[in-house]
Specification:
Blueprint lengths: L4 H19 L3 E4 L6 H8 L5 E4 L3 H15 L3 E5 L3 H4 L2 H10 L3 E7 L26 E2 L9 H16 L8 E7 L31 E2 L8 E5 L5 H8 L4 E4 L10 H5 L2 H6 L4 E5 L6 H10 L2 E5 L14 E3 L2 E2 L10 H22 L5 H15 L3 E3 L3 H9 L7 E2 L10 H9 L3 E7 H6 L11 E8 L11 H4 L2 H9 L6 H7 L3 E5 L2 H14 L1 E8 L3 H18 L3
Parallel strand pairs: 1-2, 1-3, 3-4, 4-6, 5-6, 7-13, 8-9, 8-10, 10-11, 11-12, 14-15, 14-16, 16-17, 17-19, 18-19
């Protein structure tokens, strides 16, 4: 007697979910849809899983990305067939470039119902191309294929986690389901022992590599993917360490320090060590090209960014903190530390309580340090203001620094905050671009600080701002949208308020973290052209703050 197809599908879905739960899956992001019913029910039946339901697939995918960033383990995303699958593309691109593990699961009709006008059907085979670590399309579940179900799930998990000598990242399974979609699972195929390495490949400790420094002046430039633990170990090598907004425990203010020729000359290294992604500072990149030092890159912190092609030597793993020949010059480290401290002291005296884009970034970072709350920083100006003008980060900082897009950032904030707390810092255009994230809100506590500068502030720093007429620049680049952001957030049922001083911002963020739920704090800042002038003025003042 043959087993009903609905039963086979239900058992297949229950099996792969069971395999992922055994492997450590905690979070699943589900979007409503009919074709994905068998797998949605399998996920929902497992009490071990946190099932987050989001109605917008793009928002859901970036929410999942935020969860994966926070938990450092794969998160599953399930959508129905058709354009729902296409909505995931931007988040898959970000996860690919940022090495974030996602299990992308798209439901589909069987092959015989594709290409003949069946509703809600598009070409989903290999939809994300080379962006995924692994693509699988097992077809409609068959009873005689039961022995393959657990290995299938395991291959996806391993590829997402970055086993088998590949970095972590998204994987894609396009799963065909046929009607009837509702069914009851039978007894599952037997699972393997938790101690079997075929199921749970061990995490291999990072290889340690060394090269000779022997007391030279070493500048270590770190970016996305480098952990706090790695940075703490690197400090023992007597290297001056600077980094992007996402890396804690680094020396701040590198960008304004390097803008002045004399100050930069005093901070010039003999050797540069690179790990992880690239900082946002073009000034830093320019100085590294001008100085043309020996540049050594280590691949053990994830993807090693080298957009300017300056890395001469690539070494596997991480620097060996025990290698005495890698110790740098302590006076060089002290020189960088002193310069950084003096800039911080100057800014603390100069900026005061006026709310500007720079003081918003500084305040949000300081509150994150004081409350040990994770921070998610939006692209464009927020990530630059945190990297350039904020004090050193201590609490975790996240940003979508793979593709550097503004899409989905609000959803990423809510994903990081789910079940916990987080503060987000975004611009007004970024907020409006992902306003659908507000529909489902947060399953925890999030304070979203929105810098309201009436448009895309980063474009005012580009040549377009002065080369074009004001009207044309505003039309094509600044793209100001004159919406009341407080009313928008409140319309979705969230607490919202507008602030205009540092003291008000501090109070609003502190109250929001205590209140729970989602709070939107809209920060009124000076016009965009004044922000450009402020950056220029502060950069000029740095020369007087550093005594050489």
């Amino acid at each position: 007697m043959s087993v009903p197809v609905s039963t086979v599908q239900a058992t297949f879905c229950a099996t792969i979910v069971d395999e992922w739960v055994r492997a450590g899956l905690l979070d699943v992001v589900l979007c409503p849809g009919s074709r994905s019913t068998p797998l949605a029910l399998a996920f929902a039946s497992r009490s071990e899983l946190h099932c987050h339901v989001r109605i917008d697939e793009r928002s859901a995918a970036f929410f999942a990305l935020g969860r994966a960033l926070r938990t450092r383990r794969p998160v599953a995303v399930l959508v129905t067939s058709g354009t729902a699958a296409a909505e995931l593309h931007a988040a898959v691109a970000e996860a690919d470039l940022s090495c974030v593990p996602l299990l992308i699961l798209t439901a589909d009709r069987p092959p015989e119902l594709r290409g003949i006008g069946a509703p809600q059907t598009i070409e989903q085979t290999a939809l994300f191309g080379p962006m995924v670590r692994h693509f699988a399309e097992p077809g409609v579940a068959r009873e005689d294929a039961r022995p393959t179900w657990r290995p299938f799930a395991n291959r996806l998990w391993r590829a997402a986690r970055g086993f088998d000598d590949r970095p972590a990242g998204p994987v894609h399974a396009n799963l065909s389901f046929i009607e009837p979609l509702l069914g009851e699972a039978e007894e599952l195929p037997e699972g393997r022992s938790d101690n079997d390495p075929w199921v749970f490949a061990p995490v291999i400790p990072a290889l340690r590599s060394a090269f000779e420094v022997n007391g030279a002046s070493v500048l270590c430039v770190v970016g996305a993917g480098v952990s706090a633990a790695v940075v703490q170990e690197l400090w023992g090598l007597q290297w001056a360490i600077i980094g992007d907004a996402t890396v804690p425990h680094t020396l701040p203010y590198a960008d304004p320090l390097l803008r002045d020729d004399e100050v930069a000359a005093g901070l010039r290294p003999d050797v540069v060590v690179r790990l992880g992604g690239a900082p946002a500072s073009k000034v830093l990149a320019q100085r590294l090209r001008e100085w043309a030092p020996r540049v050594v890159g280590f691949t053990g912190a994830g993807f090693l960014a080298d957009p300017d092609g300056i890395i001469g030597d690539r070494l596997p793993g991480l620097p060996d903190g025990r290698a005495t020949q890698m110790r740098g010059a302590s006076d060089f480290v002290q020189r960088w530390a002193t310069a950084s401290r003096l800039v911080g002291e100057h800014l603390a005296v100069t900026l005061g309580d006026e709310l500007t884009e720079i003081t918003v970034a500084r305040t949000v970072v300081e509150l994150g340090v004081a409350t040990a709350t994770p921070l998610v920083v939006g692209s464009s100006m927020p990530v630059r203001d945190v990297e350039w003008w904020a004090p050193s980060r201590v609490a975790p900082v996240f940003a979508n620094r793979g593709a550097n897009g503004i899409d989905g950032v609000v959803s990423t904030v809510l994903g990081v905050a789910a079940g916990d707390k987080a503060v987000g810092l975004v611009g007004d255009v970024t907020f409006l671009h992902d306003v659908s994230a507000l529909v489902d809100g947060v399953e925890g506590c999030a304070v979203l600080v929105v810098v309201d500068n009436d448009g895309g502030g980063i474009f005012n720093f580009l040549p377009q701002a002065t080369a074009l007429s004001t009207d044309r620049f505003e039309q094509l680049f600044a793209t100001a949208r004159h919406h009341d952001l407080v009313r928008i957030a409140a319309a979705f049922g969230h607490h919202a308020e507008r602030v205009s001083t540092v003291a008000q911002l501090t109070s609003a963020v502190t109250s929001g973290l205590a209140r729970g739920g989602l709070s939107v704090v809209v920060a009124s800042v000076p016009p965009r052209h004044e922000n450009v002038e402020m950056h220029a003025s502060l950069n000029r003042e740095i020369r007087g703050a550093v005594p050489w």
